[in-house]
Write a structure and sequence with these properties.
single chain, alpha+beta, five-stranded mixed sheet, three-stranded antiparallel sheet, 8 strands, globular
């Protein structure tokens, strides 16, 4: 009985450590994440950027993907829709507004189905930070 408790405690500790380290075991509706990239880096306000994504075998939603860009952790500033698949050729060209704030920004797939999690761990999402500079 004592060994069973010790084994259970060790397994629980390992699982908790995995949850707190960033991405827990990917399961649920989307078992992979399409790694996003933004070029050029840094991006320039008022100019065009290209968002690309790695291959991730998931179905495109009926309404397509909603790609959002914002500053720091604020509300989205730019919203684009695309029906492209994450088949390794995903590429979306987006014009940043000339008044897009300088500093750290993000690109995110807003309608990505997050990996299920609770308040004790991190949820995996399809997003990427990038920097913006003034023209």
């Amino acid at each position: 009985m004592r060994m069973r408790r010790a084994a259970t405690a060790a397994a629980l500790a390992a699982l908790t450590a995995g949850l707190l380290s960033g991405c827990a075991l990917l399961s649920g509706p989307n078992p992979c994440l399409p790694g996003l990239a933004v070029t050029p880096s840094p991006a320039v306000a008022g100019e065009t950027i290209t968002v690309t994504a790695e291959k991730c075998d998931v179905a495109v939603p009926d309404e397509g993907w909603t790609v959002v860009l914002g500053h720091a952790e604020g509300a989205p500033i730019v919203t684009e829709s695309t029906s492209q698949a994450f088949d390794g050729t995903f590429e979306l060209t987006v014009e940043l507004p000339s008044d897009f704030p300088e500093g750290q920004a993000y690109v995110d797939i807003a309608n990505w189905v997050y990996v299920p999690c609770d308040d004790t761990g991190s949820c995996a999402s399809a997003d990427r930070p990038f920097d913006v500079i003034a023209p």
